[in-house]
Design a protein that fits this description.
- With 222 residues, the chain is an all-alpha fold.
- The protein is 53% helix and 2% strand.
- The chain contains ten helices and two strands.
- The protein has a two-stranded antiparallel sheet.
- Strand 1 and strand 2 form a beta hairpin.
- Helix 4 packs across helix 9 and helix 8 crosses helix 9.
- The longest helix has 27 residues.
- It is elongated and about 95 Å long.
- Bound molecules: heme C.
- The site of heme C (HEC) has 20 residues, from helix 5 and helix 8.
């Protein structure tokens, strides 16, 4: 054993100076360095990648069946009375359009120009197909045979409190179905504000126009 390894060492020492002087030696050194780095990389992968203790755990994926529960579902129904985070909805006006159970005629937040623009955008998507872009109730679906809604410009709806419009969108009304699933409460208020703007657009008087704008209008009429 000892003699063998001694001889091998001797052979290497004797051969090196003779056969590889100069550049080939440099190449060998590179190869050795590369090998060392590869070994380090492999070690890192082995040390980090193979820790399985907490990584493989028994679990159910969404809607996967289960033989553990009697009803065969892994998805458990929520306990009655559970309130999801952010769903408490204690703000009666904001979520129901009512104050102490009475339909309210106020908005739960100040309406800005941006809210009106948002209301117009949502109205044109969700309501105009039946109610028409002006609220006349003669939208395209009605022209194709759907039961016609009343115009927003009739006396009764002109006088209706704004909470009524919110409620119609939230709960549906007669043949009109609810939009609560598609339009968020905030957007419903924006639409209600825009309906008020539509009503004004069909019933405005010159006295509603600010004096500065009125002179502009009178100027352009001449
Ligand atoms: C698919 C057609 C359709 C769409 C879309 C629609 N509505 Fe209606 N809407 C109706 C019909 C039909 C009625 C009349 C219902 C009745 O009297 O039975 C109505 C009635 C109404 C009324 C009057 C309620 C009253 O007091 O008489 C309001 C306000 C209203 N809709 C608002 C909206 C708003 C806001 C949207 C959009 C979020 C909308 N509707 C989308 C068909 C539609």
């Amino acid at each position: 054993m000892k003699a063998n390894s001694g001889r091998a060492q001797h052979v290497v020492r004797a051969a090196a100076p003779v056969s590889v002087p100069g550049p080939p030696f440099a190449i060998k050194r590179h190869a050795r360095t590369a090998f060392a780095w590869a070994a380090v990389a492999l070690l890192v992968v082995l040390m980090t990648g193979c820790r399985l203790d907490m990584h493989i755990q028994p679990k159910y994926k969404g809607l996967e069946p289960s033989s553990f529960f009697n009803d065969g579902r892994s998805e458990r129904p929520v306990i009655p009375g559970t309130v999801a985070r952010g769903q408490l909805r204690t703000d009666e006006l904001y979520y129901t359009g009512k104050i102490n159970g009475q339909v309210a005629d106020v908005f739960p937040f100040p309406i800005t120009q941006k809210d009106l623009e948002r209301g117009r955008d949502r109205f044109n998507v969700y309501c105009a197909p039946c109610h028409d872009y002006t609220g006349s109730g003669k939208g395209m679906i009605v022209q194709r045979g759907f039961p016609p809604p009343p115009s927003y410009h009739i006396d009764r709806l002109m006088k209706a409190p704004v909470g009524h419009f919110f409620n119609v969108m939230t709960d549906g009304y007669g043949t009109m179905y609810s939009y609560a699933g598609r339009v968020s409460p905030r957007d419903r208020w924006c639409i209600a504000a825009y309906i008020r703007a539509l009503q004004l657009s069909q019933n405005a008087r010159t006295t509603d126009v600010p004096p500065q704008e009125l002179t502009k209008l009178q100027g352009s009429a001449q």
